[in-house]
Amino acid sequence: MQKLLPTLLTILLLIGCAQSSVETDEVKEKNQTTDNFEKNLECQKFKEELEENKLEMFKSSIQGIFYSPKTNSCLYVLISAPPTDSTSNYLSYELIDFFTRQTIEQYTNHPNYTGEIKSIDDFQEKVKEYQN
Q1: Whole-number pLDDT of residue 56
Q2: Are 47 and 65 in contact (CB under 8 A)?
């Protein structure tokens, strides 16, 4: 029995550590979710500024702004169409960093487009990657 006691105490200690590690991971995940939610709300405040400053020569709209944990920044999707007096009807989709104004991903349905993203569905999947 005396030889068994140290082994049992070690097992109990390890079980306790494992449970506290799981709880810590759950707390971290909850805190991260809360933090992302708060950052997302902060990003939403910039939507009005975006609407005011979008290019007037193109018909464009902002399709959402969100916080991206992947880039640790606010990103938005800008959809642009050619000017109303144009005969073209192609659309351009851009995922843009609000603070740097850098285009991160883009897609257009123009037949001469040779970019990496080949469809609007692929573009939307890329956007989801940046949201999570």
Answers
A1: 56
A2: yes
CA distances to 43, 60, 96, 121, 123 from 88, in Å = 33, 14, 23, 22, 21
Centre a 10 Å sphere on the Cβ of residue 105 and count the other Cβ atoms it contains.
20
Give the max Cα distance, the chain. 92
Please state the φ and ψ torsions of residue 109, each to the nearest 5 degrees.
Answer: -90, 15
Tell me the per-residue pLDDT of 71-129, one tens digit each, with 9 for 90 and over: 999 999 999 887 666 677 889 999 999 999 999 999 998 888 898 999 999 999 999 99
Please, which residues have CB within 8 angstroms of residue 44's CB and are 6 or more apart in sequence? 65
Contact 130, 75 (CB under 8 A): yes
Tell me the two tokens of residue 114.
């040779």
Closest CA to 99 of 78, 76, 74: 74
